[in-house]
Amino acid sequence: MTKPLLTAAALTLLLSACGGHEPAVTPPAALTTLTGTLVESVETDDLSLQTRPWTGGAGTVRVVSPNADASDATVASGTLAASGAFSVALQAPTSPLEPVSAADLDSVTNAFVGGLLGDDLRDDLNCTGQPSLSDPSVRATVGVLRVDADQDGSALPLTLRGSETDTNVSLDLGLGVLMYADRPVNLTGREVCTLSDSTGSVNYTTNYDLRLAQGWNKVSFKSAVSVTATTQTATLTITTSAASGSFPTENWVFLEGGDVATPLSLPGKILR
Fold this sequence. Notes:
It contains three helices and 16 strands. By secondary structure, the protein is mostly beta strands. The protein has a 16-stranded mixed β-sheet that branches. The chain is globular, with a radius of gyration of 19 Å.
């Protein structure tokens, strides 16, 4: 393999699950009202995400879920105050839900690292372990928050803190996802992926502890990323956890134009 282990692509979020069986565990209560506060990102030379209060005025917010044709179906709408505070009474999606299949496993395990790795490199990863799904017949979807005000776009709960030395960059990334399941289901387990060659090594572990209620759920992805480099090699180490019940923050970062991948490009830009 001749490509370097780190590329300048953006991090992407693709949330799915995989098949298997595990004993049922009583899930938390479903989320019925989504609340939070919009903030705006500020461009700085800092490795950490900096934000400022919302300046887009009052308006409305909508929770949308994707249709099979990649269009959006509005699930629920709510109010947005000039301060950025919003509230949405959630409802069940009206568009068909997608089955959760083992074929989607790669999307989960690469949720936080796909953009740091080239497509060829991801194909070469050696992975062991697989999360288990308590009910393989579950159907699910994700919800995205759309903003309609003086500024239009999308928003998501996001945190990013970083530090660097001459030879190391460390990042702590948190991302919240709104997920709907048509029945209680648990996704638990661990997957470990590794790769090494003459340019360095990749080591990442994903730990799953998703215990979803029937209805809407808060899901958090938290990832610790460390890159240690010399003049000839680089070592990328990632430890990611996927857990339900909360978001990493109740501040939702506004994304102008509705591109939910925009904030996930920050780590990739930092590691260029």
